[in-house]
TrEMBL record:
Pfam families assigned to the protein according to its UniProt record, in alphabetical order: Rep_fac-A_C
Protein name, UniProt field: Replication factor A C-terminal domain-containing protein
Organism: Sesamum alatum
Top-rank lineage group of the source organism: Eukaryota
Residue spans of biased composition, Polar residues class: 1-15
Residue intervals of the Replication factor A C-terminal domain: 29-120
Coiled coil: none
Gene3D superfamilies: Nucleic acid-binding proteins (2.40.50.140)
InterPro entries cross-referenced by the UniProt entry: NA-bd_OB-fold, Rep_factor-A_C
Region: Disordered, residue numbers: 1-21
Length: 182
């Protein structure tokens, strides 16, 4: 343990010379490739009245505004929004960004509610969606998080570069349609 290597395999000089990407102070547009999507948590549930985050439990109503959803407990009172963590690679580095509803809809091709309903019937849909997006080339505009607690750069907008790009939900529908017939 005493003769530790001198970290010679780390290109320290190259990385420190450039301005660290986590310190962008204005929206920055770049081309990147999707490395991986965190499929374990693609969306979250909010109260449709006050938009506070709710636990992922269909029977719980909003404790903040005491909105009563007893008339139609399943559909009214709450909705889902995308919140997707994904690793992207630029020509210099790989890092994690967070993508909220507006940007994520571009890649998923549907609302978070539609995706959630689809995933309820198809348990592996989230994993398959992540896989469908891996390797996709994108032009993203990244912004610094406005919330001081946020750890990741935020995807303000996203444009798929491939002319053959199709939203994840389309890929999934094809996938499950094929499997369903056989
Ligand atoms: Zn509420």
């Amino acid at each position: 343990m005493s003769n530790q290597p001198t970290n010679s395999d780390e290109p320290v000089n190259q990385q420190t010379r450039k301005r660290p990407l986590m310190e962008i102070d204005k929206p920055t547009t770049m081309t990147c490739t999707v490395v991986a999507v965190d499929h374990t948590s693609l969306c979250y549930r909010i109260c449709s009245v006050c938009e506070k985050t709710l636990p992922e439990n269909p029977t719980s109503s909003c404790k903040y505004c005491n909105f009563s959803n007893s008339f139609n407990p399943r559909t009214s009172g709450s909705k889902h929004l995308f919140r997707v963590l994904m690793s992207i690679a630029t020509d210099t580095k790989v890092f994690v960004v967070v993508m909220f509803d507006r940007a994520a809809r571009v890649l998923f091709g549907c609302s978070a509610d539609e995706f959630f309903d689809f995933a309820k019937i198809h348990p592996y849909a989230a994993m398959a969606a992540g896989r469908a997006l891996e390797g996709e080339m994108l032009t993203v505009t990244l912004t610094r998080p406005t919330n001081g607690n946020a750890q990741h750069l935020r995807v303000a907008s996203v444009v798929p570069l491939s002319s053959s790009f199709q939203p994840a939900i389309e890929t999934l529908r094809e996938l499950y349609r094929v499997k369903g017939v056989s």
